[in-house]
Design goal:
Elements: E1 16-19, E2 31-37, H1 42-58, E3 63-69, H2 77-91, E4 98-101, H3 106-112, E5 122-126, E6 132-136, H4 141-149, H5 157-192, H6 196-209, H7 214-227, H8 231-248, H9 251-262, H10 273-290, H11 303-312, H12 316-329, H13 338-356, E7 360-362, E8 365-367, H14 388-394
Parallel strand pairs: 2-3, 3-4
Antiparallel strand pairs: 1-4, 2-5, 5-6, 7-8
């Protein structure tokens, strides 16, 4: 049964309540936001202050916010619960809404799966009569919630159209994930055993099923190049992957291709150097044309990958410039969540320190060059003529 607007709200079946009083059932006359989230999810954490604000703003209108932590990553329920308790005590001891914990998968089965909700954060709004009024991202609540509270949302054409569109989009994604799951499971199991032949078979099955799926294509190139070291297959695979990335004009595809060629955690010694740098130059040129340095688009995703190419090419100054632009874009026009900044900043600072060969700091956060970071000889610069005979002959 599909869970959508007008459906009766499912039950709340959780293992424990970590903040606030337990809720046994939805009370008539109240409106509830049931928010699925996790401590590892950056967008979820970015949404929490917003939920605090909504709870405070609309508490007199009968709003109750419930955070459901149903996707904590830990081997056991006890470990997940302990981790979550510690996180809440440190980060969110003054939350003004309930937090529930479930490690059994029951809440996902009751709420997320029937609604084709495939990612978190996901907000479910339960209306005053116990029926679903809205399912979507918490950023949409500012517009939707006042209309739910005054009773106009569920009867509006806007609400019905939004729900129909959500189901169509989410159902397609959910079906794709269902198709990918057995392939991914077989691939991961084979990789753990270093059974590269079985892993390759799984990935080739995935590509046959979804030829334009980035993760399958990237995994395929990585497997043949960096696990199986099959240059005969790997070189044409890499060329085609880079060509498709450029033809799509996609930052995500180009970042993936550059990582396969220049990521420092990978061994590129078997790859013909001239071809590796030729492909890298073409990808980098297209990336910078798509997201030019003088533009306002965020640089922190793509520029580190391009900087690696320039650094290995011997153009250290250009690599430094790109990392500095990436750092600057963390405070650009488009707001970046603090949690995302905290994740990206150390990596960008470390790259900058490595490229400069000296300690660098942003505020109180500093990074020093890594001792094992490879020193790349500079390429493409004109060498000074130190042979007096050659100099005289030229004159």
């Amino acid at each position: 049964m599909v869970l959508r607007m007008e459906s009766p709200a499912p039950s709340i079946k959780v293992e424990d309540w970590l903040l606030g009083e337990p809720l046994t059932n939805f009370q008539p006359g109240k409106v509830y936001i049931v928010e699925f989230w996790a401590t590892w999810c950056g967008p979820c954490l970015a949404a929490m202050p917003h939920l605090v604000q909504l709870q405070e703003q609309y508490k007199d209108s009968g709003l109750e916010v419930i955070g459901v932590a149903a996707d904590e990553q830990a081997p056991t329920a006890d470990e997940a619960r302990t981790k979550l308790d510690a996180w809440l005590s440190e980060k969110c001891s003054n939350l003004n809404y309930r937090i529930a914990f479930d490690h059994t998968g029951e809440m996902n089965k009751l709420w997320m799966e029937p609604s084709f909700s495939v990612g978190i954060p996901t907000s479910f709004v339960v209306d005053r009569d116990g029926h679903i009024a809205f399912i979507g991202h918490p950023t949409e609540l500012d517009e939707v919630l006042p209309k739910v509270l005054n009773g106009s949302w569920r009867t509006s054409d806007e609400g019905k159209t939004a729900d129909t569109r959500r189901i169509a989009e989410s159902e397609s994604i959910a079906r794709e994930q269902a198709l990918k799951k057995p392939i991914n499971d077989r691939f991961r199991a084979a990789v753990e055993k270093e059974d590269w032949k079985t892993a390759l078979s799984a990935i080739e099955e995935g590509i046959a099923l979804m030829p334009d799926h980035l993760n399958f294509r990237q995994a395929h190139a990585h497997l043949v190049l960096h696990r199986m070291h099959d240059m005969w297959t790997g070189l044409p695979t890499m060329r085609q992957f880079a060509r498709d990335a450029i033809d799509r004009n996609s930052e995500y595809w180009m970042i993936a291709a550059l990582d396969l060629l220049f990521h420092p955690n990978l061994d590129h010694s078997r790859f013909p150097s001239a071809e590796r740098f030729a492909i890298g130059k073409e990808l980098s040129d297209h990336m910078l044309a798509l997201n030019p340095p003088q533009g306002d688009s965020p640089k922190f995703w793509s520029y580190p990958a391009v900087a690696r190419y320039y650094h290995e090419s011997g153009n250290k100054d250009r690599a430094i410039e790109l990392i500095e632009l990436a750092l600057k874009s963390l405070d650009g026009r488009e707001p970046v969540a603090d949690e995302l900044k905290q994740h990206l900043l150390p990596e960008l600072l470390q790259a900058l320190a490595n490229y400069k060969g000296e300690k660098v700091c942003v505020g109180a956060l500093c990074a020093a060059p890594q001792n094992n970071f490879p020193k790349v000889p500079e390429r493409g610069r004109t060498r000074k003529n130190t042979n007096p005979r050659r100099k005289q002959k030229k004159e």
